[in-house]
Design goal:
The structure holds 2 protein chains of 2 kinds. Chain A is α/β, with parallel strands linked by helices. Helix content of chain A is about 40%, strand content about 15%. Chain A has a 6-stranded mixed beta sheet, with helices on both faces. In chain A, helix 5 runs parallel beside helix 6. The radius of gyration of chain A is 18 Å and the shape is globular. Chain B is mainly α. Chain B has 2 domains: about 35 residues; about 210 residues, MetI-like (MetI-like fold, Orthogonal Bundle). The longest helix of chain B has about 40 residues. The chains are: A alpha/beta, B mainly alpha. Chains A and B meet through strand 4 and helix 3 of A and helix 9 and helix 10 of B.
Chain lengths: ~230, ~280
């Protein structure tokens, strides 16, 4: 399904991958985080070939995948519990993350009582709670309404850029890719290959998604990438 | 809309009145009113059926010897209460049912969930489970009597056997039904197989397992009663069988009534436990 694709993800860099539907973006992500073994080729992690799931990776999908029997804060602690971090410490970490995402007072709510945007924020907190160095996001914001999406993108940008994590974002949304990323990689139809790479160089506060959209350069990037996407 | 005004003033001391005047939102009060209406209709329906039955056997051409009559059934029930036999029989059958229910579900659920760990093993045992599940439970009764005697143990075995296969299949289906993306998420968090099982698969299967529990309460009771039919000296099944052989139809109905009450009590207990153990399921309340 995937042809020849090769790219790097640097430390502290936000890279988006855009491509037509069904070109294998999700498969690519599963390869990168070691959930699927590649049939050919390899994934290098800090220069060494990857076997299994790498240790400090955060994974987020369009589905929030919150566990319905755990409250918001308990969902955030999931990764820490897997790593056998002590109970008090993991609650403190989770609570502070929820506070930073504006969900502090909803910590003890079950997911069924939260809105879609809030649930995805809890999922973001869960992803960040285990302090990953690399984040792999598969269209995590695509089911959200525009306002919610802008806000959660802003929070993501702050939390990722502020702590020098690397983020690989797979998305359909060209505007999201341009406003959020340092680099956008465009993939082709199956068998997918890299069509082009764009270094996004926008001035100003990179965590302000609306300001990014107002830049004259922004529209130029979006148009160029849209053309290259070859939507038929 | 002022609800209390539409009703006759309830007496100050009645429990119903206190229940009725509990504080609550308009919606809760409307909910309570419709609950009361449903309960009232149920009582009226029961009254009509029993009334017609009684009227029929009091000279409207229905043979009371063949069909029993509510008044005689009530008298039989009173007699069972006054000589204490109802407690003995209900206790015996209740213990057999409960024992088989617990044992069968523990065994079946443990086996079903453990099959999650090995797709290979589950494929190996699948036809055997299906074969065992398709055996009518009544057909196992003679073997149970021969192996475990005519006492408590054979009834326990019958009740357990009625439960175990269902519990196994339900638990296995529940474990298999876990979203693969959720398993991938656990893997990306670095969870090993045991952690995935404990933190994800087990709690995710609880909804199915509890559905199975509600189902198997009844199955366990059937197993215990069938065991008592085959050979026994006490229990509700014994009472029904003995009364039936003597053509004491009203006595059969009286023992049946107690059996139904026992079944309702047992399923109510299961529902209570479910609600306590699955606090995130708002739909259960």
């Amino acid at each position: 399904m995937i042809g020849s694709v090769s790219f790097d993800l640097g430390e502290g860099e936000i890279v988006s991958i855009v491509g037509p539907s069904g070109c294998g973006k999700t498969t690519l992500l599963n390869l990168i985080c070691g959930l699927l073994p590649p049939t050919a080729g390899s994934v290098l992690w800090h220069g060494r070939e990857l076997t299994g799931v790498p240790p400090r990776v955060g994974y987020m999908l369009q589905k929030d995948l919150l566990l319905p029997w755990r409250t918001a804060v308990q969902n955030v602690t999931l990764g820490l519990q897997v790593r056998q971090v002590g109970g008090r410490e993991r609650l403190a970490t989770a609570q502070s993350l929820l506070d930073r995402l504006g969900l502090g007072e909803f910590a003890d709510y079950y997911p069924s009582a939260l809105s879609g945007g809030m649930r995805q924020r809890v999922a973001l907190a869960r992803t960040l709670a285990s302090d990953p160095e690399v984040l792999l996001f598969d269209e995590p914001f695509s089911a959200l309404d525009f306002q919610t999406k802008i806000l959660i993108e802003r929070d993501t940008a702050r939390l990722v850029r502020g702590e020098r994590r690397s983020l690989l974002l797979i998305t359909h949304d060209v505007e999201e890719a341009v406003s959020l990323s340092d680099r956008v990689i465009v993939l082709s139809h199956r068998p997918c290959t890299v069509v082009s790479q764009h270094h996004i160089d926008l001035p100003g506060d990179r965590t302000d998604m609306m300001a990014m959209r107002e830049q004259p350069e922004f529209a130029r990037y979006v148009r160029k990438i849209w053309t290259e996407l070859d939507i038929r | 809309m002022t609800l209390p005004a539409t009703l006759p003033a309830p007496s100050r001391t009645s429990r119903l009145a206190r229940w009725w005047s509990r504080p609550g939102t308009e919606r809760q009060r409307i909910g309570r009113r419709s609950m009361l209406q449903v309960a009232l209709c149920q009582l009226v329906l029961l009254g009509i059926v029993l009334g017609l039955w009684e009227w029929g056997t009091q000279g409207a051409g229905v043979n009371a010897f063949l069909f029993g009559s509510p008044s005689v059934i009530a008298a039989q029930l009173m007699a069972m209460f006054s000589d204490g036999s109802v407690w003995v029989d209900a206790r015996v059958t209740g213990l057999e049912t409960l024992g088989g229910f617990v044992l069968g579900n523990l065994l079946g659920t443990a086996l079903g969930l453990s099959l999650w760990f090995s797709r290979f093993l589950s494929r190996v045992v699948q036809p055997f489970v299906l074969a065992l599940g398709s055996v009518p439970i009544v057909a196992l009764a003679p073997i149970a009597i021969i192996w475990f005697g005519t006492g408590f143990a054979s009834k326990l075995a019958m009740a357990t056997l009625s439960v175990v296969v269902v519990a196994l299949v339900v638990a296995y289906k529940g474990a298999l039904g876990v979203d693969p993306d959720q398993i991938n998420l656990m893997r990306s968090l670095g969870a090993n197989r045991w952690q995935i099982f404990r933190l994800l698969v087990l709690p995710a299967s609880l909804t199915d397992i509890f559905a199975g529990l509600k189902l198997t309460v009844g199955f366990a009771l059937v197993g215990a009663i069938v065991g008592e039919f085959m050979s026994s000296s006490e229990g509700l099944g014994h009472a029904i069988f003995k009364a039936g052989s003597l053509y004491a139809i009203s006595k059969v109905f009286a023992a049946l009534t107690v059996t139904v009450v026992l079944a309702l009590v047992l399923s109510a207990v299961v529902s209570r436990v479910e609600r306590a153990l699955l606090p995130w399921r708002h739909d259960l309340n």
